[in-house]
Every structure is written in C-alpha cells, then in structure tokens.
Amino acid sequence: MNVGVVIPFYQREPGILPRALTSIRSQRLPPDIQVEVIVVDDHSPVPAAEEMSAFADSDLIRWHVISQPNAGPGAARNTGIDWLESKDIRYLAFLDSDDEWRPDHLINALTALEGGGDFYFSDHSRTGDCDSYFNDDKDVRPTMHGIKAAHVMLDGGGARIFAPNAINDAMLENYLSQTSTVVLRRAALGNLRFDPELRHAGEDYMLWIQLALNGVRICISDEIEVVCGTGINMCHGSYDWDSKDALTRLSGEIVFHQKLNRLSLGTARSKVRKKLQECRRIYAYLLLRQMAKRNLPARTGLSQVMRHDPLLAVQAPLLIARFLLQDRRRLALSDSR
Description:
alpha/beta; Spore Coat Polysaccharide Biosynthesis Protein SpsA, Chain A; ten-stranded mixed sheet; about 40% helix
C-alpha cells in the first residue's frame, strides 16, 4: 500500500523541517506500507534540500524534494499531488513543515480509511495556543459536540465514519479539519485541487468543504495526533487588528466567502452570507483605519478584493457605519467572555 505525504516548504529559520520529517520517520507502520514523502520548496529562504540532508531512503520511506517559484502553500501542495501521480499512491497525507505527527497518526488514519472512509482528520494541539482544538476552541467545541449526534455509518478503528453529507453543515460552520491532520483516499480527490488564489486564507478549507459537498465519507478521530508548531503562519499571526497582515488575511477571507457562496450550500448559505457581510464590514473599517494612519494596504489583497467584490468600494461608508454600530460592540463582548 503506497501513501504519499505532501509538505509545502517556506521557512526563514533552519531546523524546523527536520522535526516534521522526524515525526514521519517515527510513525508506527507495518512493513507492507511504502511512504513517498515529497517536500515542495516554495522558493524558501532556507533551502529544503539542506534541511533534508540527514534523511536517507529506507525500506519504508523514500524522501523527495522539488523546487518551484514562490506561489503559496496551496500551489505547492498541488505541485506535490501532481508529482505523486506517477507513484501509484492510494492515500494522500498532508503535513505542514512546522508541524509534527504523533507516532500513531498514519496507522490510525489508514485503519479508518481501509474501514470504509474517504477523508480522515483528527484533533490537534498548537504550541502556545491550545491543548485540544476540538475542546479548547470556543467556536469549534459546540460544533464538535453537535457532530456526535449525527448518524455514524461505521466505527473506523477509533474514528467515527459518517454517512455522505451527514456533517456538511458542521464542516461549513467551522474549520474543523486542520490540514496536517488530513489523510485522503486518493480516488476521492479526483481532479479537485487547492485554490492557489486563496493563498492568504482558506485554500485548504475550501478543498475540504468541496470534498464534503461531494459526499465523501468523513472520518473523525478525537485523538490528538498532530502538534502544530510556530513557524511561518500567515493566519495565526494576523488576528491582531494592528498586525500589518490583518488586512491581507481579511481580503483573503472575503474572496474565500465569495467563492464559497457560489457552491451548492443548501441550508448553510445564509450563514455563509452573514459571515461574508461581517468580513466586508471589518475590512472596510480596517482599510479606513490604516489609511488614516498613512499605512497603505497590500496592493495584491486590495486588487483581489476589488476584482471579486467590486461593490465594496461603493458600499464602504455604509459598511463602516454598520460596523461601528453593530459589530464592534458585539466582537468586544465576545472577546471578553
């Protein structure tokens, strides 16, 4: 059984990637599994080849590296997926270069997928942020609690395997499937790929939603199988509104929700539209705030928003007014809880 592992790589500090690779080498796997690891160097300041020099092929694992001009994590993952096409891969796993798998992650995922699942993910922890994403995140916790009431098709060796489309609303409500925990049946992916335009927000989440809407059988494990690290991570460094990356992230979220709104979402469409309008109001307010401080926004994010949401410029005064009257007080109350 062949398993492909895709790692997009862009880091400014040496020593981060070897920890991720060591976590792959530490997986408890039976001898009939062959793992092909492809690291895609996305024009990283620290070359991936240098970071991989201590990792030699073995009977279980073969290491590969390819380089490309910088195009973002989604495009790098697509390059890795396409490169693995010639390797007769049955399952695809994803690992970010600053994250680490716990030793039973792959075998737990493969057990669930061999038991009838198509798309597996698990709980994870994040250094300095949470011990359990499923339990500690105030938005994710009620969603995960609600999932337990959904119809379970099979017991996948410790993971719950859900019937097709059984938890679509939950997948749309919150980002549940952190990418380094995801393992897929290759056939379930088909021709779908990560959206490279969403490089600042949601390129992975969009793909997981598309798979859910396509009716894949989703497997969820409550085990904490991944420890997320503290390398370069645009999203986790941009939630402070004073961050220079906040507007770039919000521009990505607007484009993400505009694209998501075009999919067949059923009863969840109203929630997606509500989230889109909230992002537009916050973006308009922060754009005005930065311009008042004479901080020019990133041209790429601004032009991307205008291309996908041309009415935002016209509606900006109304959006800012609504933000000041509604969202600011509500968000302040939410943060104080």
